């Protein structure tokens, strides 16, 4: 993307380049043009979420992950929170050997049930 170019315009440029049979594309990626603020941890949604995390005595890491699949919602001003209950598991998303232990998967279901109860009340 160039300067303050948005994703829709960028996508149109790529489609145009493909349509015009340009075979070489190049450039660099920078996210300096948009200064997106993270979702507030003081929101009722986040407070309910972290209440469930505390109740479950889980350790979490809070971080900004701009490449997440929901980043487009955050850019649109919609509060976003990602959570993956994958303890004791290597971080291998989309890798050729990505896996999740069955016990971790089943524990994750239990964790999500409690979180959903907390954030829905």
From TrEMBL:
Residues 22-39 have a biased composition (Polar residues). It comes from the Eukaryota. One of its GO terms (molecular function) is aminoacylase activity. Pfam families: Peptidase_M20. Residues 1-39 are annotated as: Disordered. This is Aminoacylase-1-like. The gene is LOC115231940.
């Amino acid at each position: 993307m160039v300067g303050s170019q948005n994703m829709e315009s960028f996508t149109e440029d790529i489609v145009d380049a493909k349509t015009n049979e340009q075979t070489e594309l190049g450039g660099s990626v920078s996210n300096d043009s948009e200064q997106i603020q993270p979702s507030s941890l003081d929101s009722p949604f986040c407070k309910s979420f972290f209440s469930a995390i505390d109740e479950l005595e889980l350790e979490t890491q809070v971080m900004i992950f701009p490449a997440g699949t929901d980043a487009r919602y955050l850019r649109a001003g919609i509060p976003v929170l990602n959570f993956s209950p994958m303890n004791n598991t290597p971080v291998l998303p989309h890798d050729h050997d990505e896996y999740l232990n069955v016990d971790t998967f089943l524990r994750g279901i239990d964790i999500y049930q409690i979180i959903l109860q907390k954030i829905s009340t």
